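**Backbone description:**
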Amino acid sequence: MGCHYLTSPVFGRPEAAAAKKLWVCVSGPDKIKAAARPLLESTSQGIIDFGEEAGAANVVKLAGNFMIQASMEMMAEAYTLAEKYKVDRTKVADFFGSTLFNAPIFKTYGKMIAEKDYSQIGFTAQLGYKDARLVHSMAQQSQTPMPFVSVVHNRLLSALAKGWNGRDWAEAISRGVTDDAGIE
């Protein structure tokens, strides 16, 4: 019968999976994608096909996780700057999350970062670092300059050095920013 390889990484936190709101990236042989479709549809709100090269969806997943990490770094820096100037960081996050950056990443992670509420661990710092390390390596291998990859890679490496491996990646990034700024 033989074996086939299908790549189907997902985007979404655990609560999105429970609500069947994941976004699934898929790549691999068309016949295998068709066979897997009912299972993938059972947990997702959408499946996006990235072709027959099995590894293509993995590239998309790593690129997406890098974009999330870079966004979290940006939010943490902006909200920390606001806090340093005695502007309510939660109000700043609410403003941006409902206007210029009205998107799930800025609403979900923005709220967590602004409120410094990391009680729900959806993706650990250890896993975030693994992805940052892989993207950093891919950028080097493909000779693709990606300066922000170095920022998030180093931020997450610092979090691991502090023993924050099992904490949410948003906390690892945000606490790194606030610690650097001298804020508790």
User: Anything to note?
Assistant: The chain has eight helices and three strands.
